[in-house]
Amino acid sequence: MANVRTIDIRSDTVTQPTQEMREAMLSAEVGDDVYGEDPTVNRLQAIAAEMFGKEDALFVPTGTMGNLISILAHCQERGSEVLLGNNSHIYIYEQGGIAQLGGVVPRPLRNLPDGTFDLEELKYLYNTGTDLHRTKSAVVATENTICGKVLPLEFMAQLKKVANELNIPVHLDGARMFNAVTALDIEPTELTKHVDSLNVCLSKGLCAPVGSIIAGKKDFITRAKRLRKVLGGGMRQSGVLASPGIIALTKMSKRLQHDHNKAKKFGKALLELRPDVFKLNLDEIQTNMVLFGVDPANFLKNTSNANAVKEFCARMKKPTSDCPVSVELLAYDERNARAVFHNDVSDEDFDLIIIKLHHVLKE
Hints:
The protein is of the alpha/beta class.
């Protein structure tokens, strides 16, 4: 079908680099980063360290590698333990790399509905290592945002206080940390001061084509750089990739409220159109991500056994002659679909999404 408009809201990782980023990549000053001689990478790392209030920072190819490096840098003995949420990205979506490659044992804490976890449970599960039969807790990891939810600053402060009492560091998987910063209307350091290390993705919502930044104390980054090398993350003239990362941090991080507004507007549209079909809580739309259920009894009246979420996503994706628009959503699980708004969704695109939604519901 000709002239189909495709709008991809599966994730904020699908963004295209901006024109400014493409021009920066073309003209980037480069050197050998394994030797620490790439001036653009060095500049990106210096900007990140200052922005996050940390002593040093390191550019890595991916967020998964950034988390893996960070956990291994904290867990210097095989058989060490990381305490982390049972819904966290590190625990569920990174292939258990900390165990596969580092011999680190994940010890899950039950994530509460708001994304936090019980700090009393953390204290209870903490292992000192004095019992030779048990693992030794070496680090606690949290995620902010998690599934689009923003962890309160009060929780972050209390977590750091408890971790200090237990004498273990706090690592932040801050893949979408700037969404949390935007939602809380704070400077990044107001959040990062409560953690010892952090990992921030430059390609989730910030439009860089690749890369993440980890930050922490100088000795932590020294260990991290060595780990990056053994994991295959040592890159040479990587200023070409770091240059859009600078723009991601300094410019694109400041426009995220637009995405948050579209997400809230989309959630309201779902409930206004068919509150009997779509199941969501508007108060839980805190950033650019919307998770919503699709009621099979009301959406698929004659096929109640079908997966309503997958069917809804399929119909939104399929263009028709009277509505040549393809909207790609993610069937997040059997109960929920996901829509994530980002820089590549214009106001016109948003209007087309709502038109497509009307069309699918009319069907």
